[in-house]
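thread: overnight batch results

M.L. [08:02]
morning all. the overnight job finished for the chain we discussed friday. pasting input first so we're all looking at the same thing
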Amino acid sequence: MAGIRAATTARTFVVGWVARSRVPAQATTDGGAQFESGLWQHLSALLGCLSHRTTSYHLQGNSMVERSACPDISDDADFLHYKMYADCVLYRLVQTVSDVTGMPRERVMHSLGQHFLPFAVEIGFGDIIHGIGQTFETFLQNIDYLHWYLMSTAFAGTQSPSFRPELVGREGEALALNYYSRRDCCTGIVTGLLQAVARNIFSINIKISTVSVHKEMVSNRPMVHVIFRITQHPIGMPRISLNWMKEWPESVQLVKKRTHTRGDGLAVGGKLFGRIHPYHIVFDRRLTILQTGAGLGAQIPETQLEGARLDHVFCMTWPEVTLSVANIERFSNLVFQLEYRKVTRSGKRFFCLKGSIVGMAAASDGAPLELTDAPLFLYLGSPLARSVRDLERMALKISDIPSHDSTRDLILLKDQRGIEFDVMQQLEKTTSELAGTATALQKEMRRTDELLHSMIPPLVAVKLKRNEPVQETFDEVTILFSDVVTFTQIAASCTPVQVVQLLNQLYTYFDQLTEHNNVYKVETIGDAYMVVGGCPEVNSEHAALVATQAHQMIRGAGHVLVPTTDKQVQIRVGMHTGPVVAGIVGVKMPRYCLFGDTVNTASRMESHGLSGHVHISHCTYTCLRSNPRFFFERRGQIPVKGKGMMSTYFVHEVQPSEPVELAPVAPAYIQYKSKSRPLVIVPHRHHPFSGVCLLM
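M.L. [08:03]
and the structure it wrote out:
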């Protein structure tokens, strides 16, 4: 699709695709993967169009409106992959698809979720998605970490959801997936996306059913909590357990190390553990801090005070909820960000940690526990630093981070990856800007060509661009001249502005008639109007076309009124047929001109004609006499200045030609009334104006 005008609606695009797809009507409501795939490809093309416009648009209701009218969307005219947009853009697009296709809104969201996976793979996230987990269960357990990573790098500020799977049933034959989100209408996208992941990444076919949906107030903010039950679909693919683990072949024997039990005495001392994990925190269910790592104690002395509470020293910045045991259990799969801020005499102190929380028992117990059963919690954290500058804000050095902590590598790679990411963003933005510039350039080129073609015939303009000669001889053309009867008296009785308005209205109608009759307007001089047929495009019907033009001009002039007298404008027309030489002369203000005696004779036919008549020479009569659409009135021999005696005729139409639909001139130049011949205005759906003029 080449472009989108401001009045174009998303509904029009969807309806157009449905009509072109030739899918039975019931397919839009009863299903069909092929239909939905094509539909979302069509909508992707719609968004692609939006990203290549110099004026950008967004969805408002069912219509595309300029982005400048919506504060949620900037005026950079781009729909970029690495830029966030308001949720309402998606919601309104989905609603429009539902309204047009008849598919339920939830079905549309489900289809969108299924097609989001190949889209994410296409824009470069395929390797990350494939590398999240060995099984579908571990994928769900770690998808929150992917969200956290994207939120902390490419999509800062994203309101990401949370997923917490649990095996249910006697043999773990099903998964109960706890889904938390600030958005209360995206469950359809989630189910479609999970089915696509299971099918395309883990080669299993799953069935998802909704167990419960309810809203919870988390930190005084509403959050939807949906519990899904996920089982393997019995039809389609081989049955593979959802919690499938790798099984080694019998030929491979693993050397099993001796396991240690509680009584074996294998333990890690608190000081050693504190050096290995210098930023860990052990706390109980009342959030009382029981133990910290050496590094954290040195940076934040408040953690060493007797009875210090975790929620008094830190605030939780991710997830954006209150730091409490209930929220820790609710979002157990998330990466927890804890932030310390304090204003001292020496200035502001800032420290931020990221890490996971696991449940633990007393010191004598070695196995980790579920969070809901654990009396103690262990926060395995590390400084949240993505660059050396972040370390400086926290008064840290790279040496303060344990050597086994990948944060070291991330900090060292940050600058390089940051530069690459910035380049990628800038490249995408530049590509979109170049596409918009190319579109704008093409638009300006079309406008330039239209302006050039209004002065020079298109065929001649092409020759000029090719540096080819444009002078050409035509053996036979028909030339028309017209002028306004008593124009001198009209000009004397009107103001200059009124004269210009009158001629503008008159000649604008004449110009539109030339386009309709396939003849070429040569020029206007004062009240004289010159037209030629058969040049520059050769046409054997040139005389008939010009004669039709002449009669329509006479009828059209009757709808134009003299401003001072309110009388109809009358014109006289003369025509002659013969050879001419045509070409462009001069450099400044170039015009396509005709040369030869035929031009002079046609002018004489006009000057010796009568008001409201088409006066033609014998040569034109010879070309027209076999045409049944015209009949002739012999005028006889008349003296013609510079030509002597000539035999001339008046030509009439047997039946007036069909009324021509013409766009009205600007309202300031038109008087839509006439006492004797009213101007008829009718609606015309193909024309940009609200009405058209019928020259009756």
